[in-house]
Amino acid sequence: MDILRDILLQVRRERRATGHFNASEADHMRAIVEACHEAGTAAIIGMSEGEREHLGVMEAVALRDAFRKEFNIPVFLNADHTRSVEKAKQAIDAGFDAIHIDLSALPFEENIAGTKEVVECARLQTTNYKLQPISIEGELGYLRGESKVQQEKIEVKKEDYTNPDQAAEFVRRTGVDRLAIAVGNIHGISLDEPDLDIERIRAIRAAVPESVALVLHAASGIPHDQIKAAIAAGIANIHVNTDLRVAYVHALKEALASHPDEAAMYKLDAPAFAAMKDVVVRKLRLFSTPATIES
Ligand code: G3H
Ligand code: ZN
What residue ranges define each of the domains in the chain, with the CATH number in brackets? Predict the structure, then answer.
């Protein structure tokens, strides 16, 4: 049961979702793992190219192993938004459990070719070393924004949304385990309230085999009712970054301002750690309550 694929299938059956939380520091990882441990769920930790360059891929893997030992829960590392096959291979070699190969900015055929190459590389690694299967996530559609509080309005265009027929073809030809979709979501906290196209999620879910998990990125700032509706429509995994970053940095700034003479970082970042952990706890509560609207 501690294989990511089984966990994603299980939550889908129960009309729930798993959280995927980003980290760039050891204490971010601890905040996520502690929250997941308390909630009794597996921890899925995402690291973008920038985040893993900051911590180091080997260091991230070593920390994951240490957290698995300490907390005795499944802890998965996902190489989030990996924009090249080369970087994906680097994360596979380092021992990441999951790769998000994001070639969504490329033309459809190039996206398929690169994603397929990563899937094949992961399968080969699994066969050679008899490791647990490495879960591969592809992305189709165009997701705007980045993980920050947006200062300008970002327009989401319908033509950027994932097309259900293309999604079916993409999954069939690449063999991905997870699919990230664009359905009105924007990375970061946007000025306007996001407006997810729930019908589109339902249509993609119907077009793609149930064995492939649908992933909703950019969940920071999305109202709770839309998250619940997205889960009911077929989302099994939800990515959150900005809400965590904001909570952490805000608490850190307050600690710095209120303790100007303190020089011990581990004391200053304790409230930041607690604030981040609290966000993860609240998100897990939201994602794990079974969605009532049937898909
Ligand atoms: O891959 C990471 C997530 O999509 C984060 O998005 O910063 O909007 O929460 P977010
Ligand atoms: Zn994302």
Answer: 3-288 (3.20.20.70)
